[in-house]
Amino acid sequence: MSEQDDTEREFDIKWADGAVHKEPSARARMLAARWKENPPRPQPFRADPEPRTPRRSSWRSTAIVLGSVAVIIVLLGYVNFQASY
Prior knowledge:
The chain is mainly α. It has a domain at 61-85. Helices cover 60% and strands 0% of the residues. The longest helix has 27 residues, at 58-84.
């Protein structure tokens, strides 16, 4: 084989892109089959998110955590104080 034969056999991307029929991906085929039976509802480009339940205010959570830490520190200090006697 000569070098000229090898260059003729190389894959030509322009030739592949110019193909008349291109096979869709597996996901595209799956969605097409699913949507034939049950088409999706139309949605705007950026749909509004579902309404959320209101969150607790952050100061309450902070107060609970800091209060718990303070109680643990006082409890450990009391236990240490009792152990020293």
